[in-house]
Specification:
Helices cover about 45% and strands about 20% of the residues. By secondary structure, it is an alpha+beta fold. It has one domain. The termini are far apart.
Length: about 150
Amino acid sequence: MRQLTFKLIIPLTIISFATITKWWYALPVDAPDTLFTGFPFPFVCDGFHTSMSLLIFVTELIADLLAYFTIWFIAVYFINRFLTKIKTHKIVTIALWTITVFIISGAAYIANYRENIFYVKRPFDIDVMETGYKFVWQPTIRPDYYKYHPEDKK
């Protein structure tokens, strides 16, 4: 199982973490409405201090990665144990790790932007208005603010 963890589970965890996610339209306390991203916990949102920055919450990020890892570990374990023995070919392992390295490199490049702010835990509460799931290549259509705040409509 240790070989399957390094050859299959870790790359699948990173690839699925980067491609399948959940968006959260929320109203943070004392801040404008914003879209958070992350499954099962929101771990990133647009920064409030400048337009190209991100607020990244490390505890939620680690919890999300562990959730994806656990899901893939359980799936691979049951398939390997009860259905059929999984044998990964070298080309599959190389392809998965190549994609994983590209994803990690891109994430490191984005996280290295000096305007990003990292918090150990989210320092403010949020009031979730709407949620949905998406793939990374699908655009997220921002929900209508006035649906939740009709009193502000002119």
